[in-house]
């Protein structure tokens, strides 16, 4: 079945460091891909998305490119801040009848000053 | 802005009690979802609904039921709460089609004693 794999962390970085969180997926078709972020004590919120191959999603300095050839959607940010400390979830939606969302396990990020 | 609201942020119930968790969305979304989130287990889908009075089991439906009598409201019911149902419960909604992201509520932290 469809699945999403991502590095589980926790990841600890110093402020202004470069961030990469790897995400790879398996799917039978051409899914839409998403990154969600969950700040402490809150629900998840959409960070960025891409709906077709080679699309780049971007938001708040984060970027991810939909790579069909490597079935990947890695999240990157050039310079992280303490306020980026959160859990990040990679997800896909397969184009099936009921559009069920498949989430990765989440990656916890801590940014220290 | 899309809003997904959940009836309680924190709830404490006793073993054997019947528990209702309510979720309301204001964007006329077709699809609604209930997840539970536990440390180390990520997000697990309990039930989802793609239309009024329609429901589908997710990955862990045992011990839960749902109700969707109106499009904007999706209720999760614990018929007889048990201590292993202590968890964070997240409701989400989204429009039909694979390009649409999910919108999450803030979550309900349920403790069963």
Q: What does this entry look like structurally?
A:
The complex is a heterodimer of chains A (113) and B (113). By secondary structure, chain A is mainly beta. Helix content of chain A is 0%, strand content 50%. In chain A, strands 2, 5, 6, 10, 11 and 12 form a 6-stranded mixed sheet that branches. Chain B has 113 residues and is an all-beta fold. Helices cover 0% and strands 53% of the residues of chain B. In chain B, the strands form 2 sheets. In chain B, strands 2, 4, 5, 6, 9, 10 and 11 form a 7-stranded mixed sheet that branches. Chain B has a 4-stranded antiparallel sheet with strand order 1-3-8-7, with no helix packed on it. The model of chain B has no long low-confidence stretch (mean pLDDT 93). The chains are: A mainly beta (113), B mainly beta (113).
The chain pair forming the largest interface, with residue counts per chain, is: A-B, 23 and 24 residues
Uncertain runs of chain A are: none
- For the record, give the distance between the C-alpha atoms at the N and C termini of chain A, rounded to a whole number: 41 Å
> What is the subunit arrangement here?
heterodimer
Strand content of chain B: over 45%
Beta-strand share of residues of chain A: over 45%
- Count of alpha/pi helices of chain B: 0
